[in-house]
Amino acid sequence: MSTITSSLTKWQKKKLCSLLSHDRLSLLFKASVHGYNASTFHQKCNTQGPTVIVAYNKSGYVFGAFTCKDYGQTGQNVVDDKAFLFSFNDKEVKEAPLRVFSGNPQYAFTDTGPNFDSLRFLHNNTATVYSNHAATYIFEPQQMHGNDLQLTECEVYRVEDCGGLLEKPWRNVQWNSERRKALLSIISGWKPSVSSVKQARILLVGHVGAGKSSFFNSINSVFKGYVSSQANTGTAGTSLTTQFRTYHIKPGSGVSHVPFALCDSMGLEEGLNSGLDVDDFASILKGHIQDRYQFNPSMPIQPESPHFHKSPGLKDKIHCVVYVIDTSKIKLLSDKMNDKFAVFRNKTNQLGIPQLVLLTKVDEGCPLVAEDLKNVYQSHYINKMVQEVSAQLGVSLSAVIPVKNYSQELEIDPQTDILLLNAVVQILRTAEGFFDDLYNPEERSE
Questions:
Q1: Which residue of 32, 94, 320, 422 has the fewest C-beta atoms within 10 A of its own C-beta?
Q2: Is the pLDDT reported for residue 217 higher than 60?
Q3: Residue 207 to residue 110: CA distance in whole angstroms
Q4: Dihedral sign from CA coordinates of 62, 19, 48, 105
Q5: What is the distance between the alpha carbons of residues 41 and 155, in angstroms, rounded to a whole number?
Q6: Radius of gyration of the chain from Cα atoms?
């Protein structure tokens, strides 16, 4: 799946949330990705509850429409006394948004499409908006869109309330320096229960932009004591990781031994001959693919390849698979992407490898967590997302771990470290299940 990102700036998103009196916007539809057509609009946006359409033009205007009612393709005019149009000029960011209410309390929009009479988005299934400023909503065209009706983008967001904080945390975490030291000690003292294996090999798998490489960089940063960027990260539409990489973390922060290696792979994508191939995935799990193999999405690795390990040992295999999912993208995962996750999970199950899910970017998913990371396990919204991922991927609730990677920070943060280290401890405990299932007691450590 190509990364689907919002075109709203932080200032614009903050202004919209303030205008809507809600905590967050969840992107449902992006015309430049999904197409400027009503059928796809309805596929993505029907029965989603309160939504806001956001249109952009070359003149720098950001304008659109809010409704708290559902789209449903009934062909009827929908009454919504809370609906309104809005606009602000990106070139004059200090100016408060223009807010225009309906002049007709009996009419808000037509649910066969994003048709607010005065503004009709995706007009004739093109990147244009039809503007009739004398209709239900009365506005000055220059103020609304600068008379520029050619769109550069059109997005639809579900308007959500984060649900506030729960009375009690649904997982207990200690957020002090003693706990950070204790987690480092647990990690340093862990070792596989099989003597032939010195490090657990952890494979990170996820959709493009989920934060796989960022997770390695973040863990590496914890041990280094400063923010580092060894693995390539970014927001490109396709996977930045094109090689199979095995990353070994150097001991640091008082830790004498790091008992795990993180393996990074191509991101999962929907298209044919794109993203990580399931056959390559199986070869990685079995230990056949060596470090720095260059993936070829149109053809899986062949036994004659110089990077193909023909006789891998237990130490070369993957001992735990960690699926990495962006909190903000959970509801954007298509049926094709969910099917791909299911195929990968089935293959992993067949090989008896335990699995875990990392829920990344929790601070972007919930403003209460962005305000204070210690709210992560009291956030009603994050709790809801954990439950959705659990049901969607078919894993237990205890196997879904929220984390925040280092992204824009220049210095490490104790709370971020604790959340990351807690995830590592859970990963190692999950990997231990792989060794517990081995039937060769002679290989076990004393």
A1: 94
A2: yes
A3: 35
A4: negative
A5: 10
A6: 25
Neighbours of 422 (CB within 10 A): 20
User: Percent of the chain beyond pLDDT 70?
Assistant: 93
Q: Residues for the chain: how many in total?
A: 446
3-state secondary structure of 260: strand
Which of 307, 314, 328 has its CA nearest to residue 244? 307
Based on the fold, state whether residues 63 and 37 are members of the same structural domain. yes
Enclosing H/E stretch for 145: helix 141-145
Is 270 found in the same domain as 132? no
Distance of alpha carbon 196 from alpha carbon 65, whole angstroms: 62
Q: Which long-range contacts (CB under 8 A, 24 or more apart) does 306-310 make?
A: 307/244, 308/283
Tokens of 108: 């808000």
Distance in angstroms (rounded) separating the CA atoms of residues 69 and 50: 6
DSSP H or E segment with residue 430? helix 414-436
Q: What are the start-end ranges of the H helices in 297-413?
A: 335-350, 362-365, 367-371, 380-393
Give yes or no: residues 334 and 243 share one domain: yes
Model confidence at 363: pLDDT above 80: yes
CA distances from 413 to 175, 226, 408, 417 (A): 11, 9, 12, 6
Residues spanned by the domain of 44: 10-160
pLDDT for the residue numbered 221: 94
Which two structure tokens, joined as six digits, stand for 436?
């517990």
Q: CA angle, corner 201, sides to 417 and 322, nearest 5? A: 60
294 φ/ψ angles, rounded to the nearest 5 degrees: -85, 115
Residue scoring higher pLDDT (197 or 328): 197
Angstrom distances, CA of residue 193 to CA of 155, 262, 322, 431, 435: 51, 19, 20, 10, 6
Q: In the structure encoding, which two tokens stand for residue 400, read together?
A: 């879904």
Query: What is the per-residue pLDDT across 36-64, written as a single tens digit (0 to 9) for each?
Result: 999 999 999 999 989 999 999 999 999 99
Average pLDDT rounded to a whole number, residues 109-132: 90
Work out how many domains the chain is built from and give that number.
2
Residue 119 inside a domain? The answer is yes
Are residues 234 and 341 located together in one domain of the fold? yes
Indicate which CATH number applies to the domain containing 370.
3.40.50.300
Number of H helices, E strands in the chain: 12, 16
Task: Note the pLDDT tens digit of each residue in 380-389.
Answer: 999 999 999 9
Residue 105 has pLDDT above 70, yes or no: no
Q: Which helix (H) or strand (E) holds 141?
A: helix 141-145
What is the maximum span of the chain, computed from C-alpha positions, in angstroms? 84
- Could you give the C-alpha distances from 410 to 154, 241, 314, 427, in angstroms and in order? 34, 23, 38, 26
Where residue 406 falls among pLDDT bands split at 50, 70, 90? very high
Average pLDDT over residues 60-89: 88
